[in-house]
Structure formats: C-alpha cells, structure tokens
Amino acid sequence: MTLSRPHTESPYMEFAKLRSGARWNLATSAVRNYPLRALDFSWDQMEINGPSDYGYRPLLEAIAHRKGVTPEHVVHTAGTSMANHLAFAALIAPGDEVLLEEPAYELMLSTLLFLGAKVHRFQRRPEDDFALDAEEIRRSLTPKTRLIVLTNMHNPSSALASNDTLREIGEMASEIGARVLVDEVYLEALHRPPQPSAIHLGPQFVVTSSLTKAYGLGGLRCGWILAEPELAGQIWKMNDLFASNPVHIGELLSVIAIAEIDKMAARADTILDANRAALTEILGGHPALELTIPPVGTTAFPRLRSGDLQAFHDFLRASYETSIVPGHFFECPQHFRIGLGGDIAMTREALIRLAEALSIWKG
C-alpha cells in the first residue's frame, strides 16, 4: 500500500539543488562559502562522538550569548529549514489556522501545508517595497489564528521590519492567544548595527535562524530555534521524532565558528557592499526592470516590466550562462530573485550579462 499525502516535496528546493547552478550564478541567496581552512582550530579538538543528547552545552551557550538569551531558550537544529519545520510541528496541529506572509518562501508554505495547517495569507505589497504592514496583519487575523509566520529580512525582497512593527504584531497575537514565528536567517546579515532578535519582544515570539546565509557556513547546518524555555523543552522532545542526535563534529566546528563570527561578518559586509554597489551601477534605472535596491540583505527582487519571466530565465541561462531564481517560487511570477553574496568578480560579470540580456530581450 502506497501512502498518499499532499505537499510531500518542495519545487524550489529541487530547483535550487538541481537546476540553479550556472557559470555566472545569481541564484544563491547566501554569502559565498567560508573555507574550512580559514577557521582557527586543530584536528586535535575534533571528536566524532560527544554529549549531545538534548543539545551540546557549549554550542547552546554560544548561541544564547550571541542572542542575549539563556541556553534554556535555545534548540539547536539542522539549519533554518529544519528549525522552521520543527517549530511549526510544535506550534500547530492539523487544521489549525496559520497566517503567512505573501509573497513567501515556497518551502515555508509547503511545510505548513504538509503539517495540515489551514493557511491564510496577508500581503506584503510590491508597491510598498514588500514592507511589513501591521495593519494588513490586523485585517487578516481571525479569532481562530493560532500562528503568524513571517521572515525578517523578508525572503525574497530583503525588506527589513522594525522591532516596533514586530512588537505591534506580537500584541495582536497575544490578544487572541496566538504565537508569532519570525524566520531571522537573513537578519543575520545585518551587522552595522545588528538588530536585536524578536525573541526579546515577548514570550509569544518564536525565532528561527542559522549561520547559513550571512556567513557562508551552510555545510555546518548550524540552525536554532529561540523560544521561551518551557516551549523550547517541548520542542527538544519533539525533535526526537525528527532528528535524534546531531553530527558532533558539526557542533564542535559551530562553536569555533561562532567564536570567530565577527571576522566572518566583516568578510560578508565587504562582499555585500561591493555587490550591492555593482547592482546599483549596472542595473539601477534599467528600463526593462522595476528595481528597488535594498540597503541591506543578501538578495534583491526586481520585476521584469514585460515579457514572460520564465522564458527570459531560460534565455538568460542558455545564451549568457547566467542564473537567477524565477519569482514563481515566491508567488510573484513576473519577479526574479538576485543573490548578492557571491564572489565579487563573478557577481559583477553576472550582473553585466544580465543587463545585456535584458537589453536585447524581446519578450
């Protein structure tokens, strides 16, 4: 007998893993990979096995110290996607009403549907540069809403929400007994100055993040959930159904990486500043695009003014060996996402090729 369930795969993840690569790659949303050789460690520090039953204490303490919470607030996970899945599973039951931003990262929507949520939407509008609007959320809430889900910075636009706006949303959630989950993986890229995590805005907030996007450390799979301690304890127990124990070498390397994170942040800022300047120089004001250049973040999300975006994507790959992420993965089929975290020389050349392709594209 074959088990049949809806929403058991992610179209975006399949694209990202199998079809997004190109010689000139604008499809990644992370800062370029950080090399292992750049970490200050010796192999004598490494062990295959260690005390990781419900979290490796030095790693929990390192994450907690960085985020200004206690280790009892922290659940270590295999990246942000697993953090989201695990947090959703702990916070909702099948049939619960969830309010999710639109446009949204496809994997978040697919995971909520897989878990049986009844998903309602609130809008982040292109004409407002995808800003988070507390009043839009207020209009979309119902007494049955159990969870509000959003990203900050917004994926895919890099729109940054203020803590004042998030605090107002948290107050709305408290009035109806709901929680607010904020995926902050892209907020990690804001270093000058950093914005405090939403976990400090009240116990109704649950935060997910990782070292993946802002520091080029995706291979460590060092993610986390921040939640009030009683809920965090429940999530740890639920994790037994999903992941059991983590890879201990990854935990050890993650502790080392967090100790050196200021160095990685400076590297990331250099890359993002250069690539954002190149985006402004090469595509700012391009007649084929509607483009707001975000002042922060690792991505931009322009709109193609005319023509079929998927056809343009195929033309760009075939004729210019350049990749972007089509916007249909974010429910905006006329937009596309550009990553700003790649190698500086490669990204500049990719942007030049994108501009040339836009200039001759007839739609």
From TrEMBL:
Residue stretches making up the Aminotransferase class I/classII large domain: 56-353
UniProt xrefs under Gene3D superfamilies: Aspartate Aminotransferase, domain 1, Type I PLP-dependent aspartate aminotransferase-like (Major domain)
Superkingdom of origin: Bacteria
SUPFAM superfamilies according to UniProt: PLP-dependent transferases
GO-annotated molecular function: pyridoxal phosphate binding; transaminase activity
Alphabetically ordered keywords of this record: Aminotransferase, Transferase
Annotated protein name in UniProt: Pyridoxal phosphate-dependent aminotransferase
